[in-house]
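Q: Got one fold?
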Amino acid sequence: MLILNPISHWEAFPAYLDLGANYNAKEDAARMVTQNSTDWRSYFLKGLTEEKQKSYAEALQSFQKASELDPKNSDLLVNQATIHFYQKEYESAMSLLVKAEEINPLEANLHNLRSMILFEKKNYEGALKAVEKAIT
């Protein structure tokens, strides 16, 4: 049986998805989680695969499990917030962004996502401020 290591697949996995190989990616990601169930990266890569395939409920569960394993990783909260954004669950997304900002206030992705949410809510001034914070 092929053992999939999240560390060695870390760099290659996004490219793997982008090459159209995502028909195998979900299966490979699930196997990676089975083989490396205590490594947050396994769940993160599984979540990215599910997100790419628009399996948002599954992606959210994967990102949540990754956060349980690495609770100080603000990126994992931003990924969860992104799933809520896709589903137009803006308040849930904003709540997660507040938590991410408590961990890492300089995380540009959280400010970028916040700007997108504020734009959708027609708060253009707030969106502009969030973009400015993302790029500074």
In short: The radius of gyration is 16 Å. The mean pLDDT is 88. The helical segments are 6-9, 12-35, 40-52, 56-69, 74-86, 90-103, 108-120, 124-135.
